[in-house]
Amino acid sequence: MAERKSLLRSPDTPLEPAFLELFFDLVYVFALTELTSRLTEHLNLKGAIDTLVLLLAVWWVWVLTAWLCDRFNPHRPIVQAQVIFVMYAVLLMAIAIRSIDRYGLLFAITYLAITFVRFVFIVLGAQGTDLPNRSKRAIFWFAVSAPAWIAGGLTAGWTRDLLWLLALAIDYGSAALKWPTPGLGRAPGWELAIEATHLAERYRQLFIVALGEIILSMGLTFAGTGPTTFAPGRTTVLVLSSISTAFMWRLYIYRAGTQLGPAIAASPSPHRLSQWSSYLHMVMVAGVLLTAAGFTLAIEHPTQHPPPAWIAAIAGGPALFLAGRSGFEYVIFGRLTRPRLIGISLLAAIGATVVYLPPTVTSAAATLVLAGVAALDTLRGHRVAPEPPSPRA
């Protein structure tokens, strides 16, 4: 029993994420790159929904793995083996993304295998604690969603999307409701305890990985354009994408990005705030991926007349990021700042007015909006004293 309990974090276990978790995030560099590539190749309504479904699945695996390392000691070899297993299982899921019509069943089975192995690990490794009951609740709901995952893996097109959206609604919805389970009820608050410092840093780390996806996509696309690599139009878009990435980092980290840990600690419902943070980070990451897809197409075709989908990606990606960032600010401080709302409105206006202009112009306009929002943030920071978090979850 003592050996099993020793798998859990002890008071002297460092709260900062372990190198194991940074190693785990490496597979998400590839997964996000594959999602961006798929979206770029299928930039239409169907492609966007496909990408969203796949992002929701790989994101949920990341969240549950972050939670596992939040409760278990990541310095123990058996915990490390579990995380590395999930890492390479996510690699399989990422490989399946580009050809999901062919490998849909592999994607679904791998997703469910991760869940089953995690369940067995927690039940065997945490006997005598509250964790097995929580895991039993979760596995009950994954069993409910499993038929939809398998059925979706055996189909294609809209049918697969609808089945997997149903499965994801069950997985996300049951977690939001604290896994109400026959015979066990909902998970009580004390069973959902989290380490605020650890989870806050994990969210920040994955967002940085997502920003790295813009840099990676832009660099690979720019380098692969052949003899015209340093053509003025392509070079301009590369510079604009780099500037936009820096502004997204600035807008994320200032100030809510540094206050998530204290906000979770101060919240009357830390688990719920952590959940909202997860969902809003996913919105921000989706905005980053859409931005990467838009800039990729702009680098490839800097002077071509852009179809509406390209404009939606170039202007809509930053707008989606700002929307997620605004929601994140609200759950941390209980308020919405005007610059971000103005930025979203301006980006919407840009999307509606640049139909006949080349992608380079749209990219410049979107970057200028991000720069303006960041500048207003900085000016406001000089006028207003830093406030403590006032969580709304």
Task: Characterize the structure shown.
The protein is built from 13 helices and no strands. Helix 3 packs parallel to helix 7 (157-176), helix 8 (196-223) runs antiparallel to helix 9 and helix 9 runs antiparallel to helix 10. It is 78% helix and 0% strand. The protein has helices at 2-5, 19-41, 45-71, 77-97, 100-125, 131-153, 157-176, 196-223, 232-266, 270-300, 308-333, 338-353, 359-383. It starts with a helix and ends in a 10-residue tail after the last helix. It is globular, with a radius of gyration of 21 Å. The model has no long low-confidence stretch (mean pLDDT 90). The protein has two domains: 2-192, no CATH class; 196-383, I/LWEQ domain, CATH 1.20.1410. The chain is mainly α and 393 residues long.
Short description:
This protein is mainly alpha-helical. The protein has 13 helices and no strands.
Give the CA-CA distance, first to last residue.
36 Å
Class by alpha and beta content: mainly alpha
**What is the residue-mean pLDDT, rounded to a whole number?**
90
Beta-strand percentage?
A: under 5%
Order of helices and strands: HHHHHHHHHHHHH
Number of strands: 0
Q: In percent, how helical is the residue content?
A: over 70%
Principal-axes geometry comes out as globular
The major sheet is characterized as:
none
